[in-house]
Amino acid sequence: MILVTGATGHVGRPLVDLLLAAGQRVRGLTRDPSRAGLPEGVEAARTEDLPLDGIDAVFFVLAAFPEGPAELIRRAREHGVRRIVALSSYTALDDDPKNFIAVRHRDLERRIEESGLEWTALHPAGGLAVTALEWREQIRATGVARGPYARAHSAPLHERDIAEIGARALLTDELLGTKPLFSGPESITYADRARLIGEAVGRPVRFEEITHDEARKEMAEVGIPPGAIEARLRMFAQLVDAPHPISPVDRFLGRPGRTFRRWAEDHVADFT
Prior knowledge:
Structural class: alpha/beta
Number of strands: 11
Strand order of the largest sheet: 3-2-1-4-5-6-9
Strand content: 15-25%
Oligomer: single chain
């Protein structure tokens, strides 16, 4: 049986579907199993209970365990879990001790490498397309997406592409002991993201650039930790007018990655 942490999350939910389609038994962790809405056949359990009996492999996301993987790894050893696949971040390649996001993911990777379990650490690069959902209320109400650094580039990944690579790491031995790096198929600006969402929903969407300080204040108001705020803003500033390197998913999936246009078309309902 495979345990998916964050089973109702942006990556976890499509991963659950992929594992079921592959004939796997799945246990999904969520804060409230009664409201999870997971597919029939999935065993839903509370994240805080962390039931590992009968589990052979784990898909781990820090968003579900903000305190880190130490307790899960300890209990995984006790229960005979064989493999852990962690959704890490390409920021782990940054050794700057002031980069809060990088520090957390470097610690995650160190712990799974030292766990004694089979491991893979996924390095999605270029950003996740789903971060554009932060704009959904603004776009619905005003047709405007607010954010800093309109000309900052990214190579956003469709969450399903990440889930498919995660499924491969869980179901085959091809990625054992590796840190596969992959990005979306194209470098686009944040202003481009807004435009492409508008084209998908059939009405103009305009990007409204706000200042660094305004962005810091808005991020703090929605509960983003100060260290993460500074890391994100510093990254955005460095990417202004700088096309993002592309690391194609083709070598993992045998096909090109889904574009941001495709992502926007898949998420029209979120913006209308």
